[in-house]
Amino acid sequence: MLKFKPAPIYILDEVDAALDLSHTQNIGAMIKTHFRESQFIIVSLKDGMFLSVNVLWQQLPKSDNPIAKLYV
User: Fold this and answer.
1) How far apart are CA 22 and CA 45, in angstroms?
2) Residue 65: pLDDT over 80
3) Domain total for the chain?
4) Contact status, residue 67 vs residue 59, Cβ threshold 8 Å
5) Where is each RecF/RecN/SMC N-terminal domain found (predicted)?
6) pLDDT digits over 13-30, tens only?
7) Is residue 50 part of a domain?
8) Is the dihedral of CA 19, 27, 70, 6 positive or negative?
9) Which burial class, exposed, middle or buried, applies to 61 when counting CB atoms under 10 A from its CB (0-12, 13-18, 19+)?
10) Does 39 reside within a domain?
11) Domain carrying residue 41
């Protein structure tokens, strides 16, 4: 479906929650390789998904002051 009728943006929330690290890395690499023309916002708690990103926004809770970081 992504190649037949692509959308301008996709939002995925913890699609890798039930996967181990190697499969999480595979999903990240597949998205980067096969869907270069699309934009993805992916919520993930696993580091394996972050290895294939162009831009990373990281939000970390820290007591009363949340920490936000942007990696380009």
Assistant:
1) 14
2) no
3) 1
4) yes
5) 2-56
6) 998 888 888 888 888 888
7) yes
8) negative
9) exposed
10) yes
11) 9-71
Alpha-carbon gap, residue 25 to 28, rounded angstroms: 5
- pLDDT value of residue 11: 92
4: in domain: no
Q: Is residue 49 part of a domain?
A: yes
Asked if 15 contacts 24 with a C-beta cutoff of 8 angstroms, the reply is no
Does residue 66 carry a pLDDT above 70?
no
Q: Which residue has the tokens 């949340």?
A: 66
**What is the C-alpha separation between 59 and 30, in angstroms, rounded?**
24
Extract the runs of DSSP E, i.e. beta strands, from 5-66.
9-13, 39-43, 56-60
Q: What is the CA radius of gyration of the chain?
A: 13
Q: What is the pTM (predicted TM-score) of this model?
A: 0.71
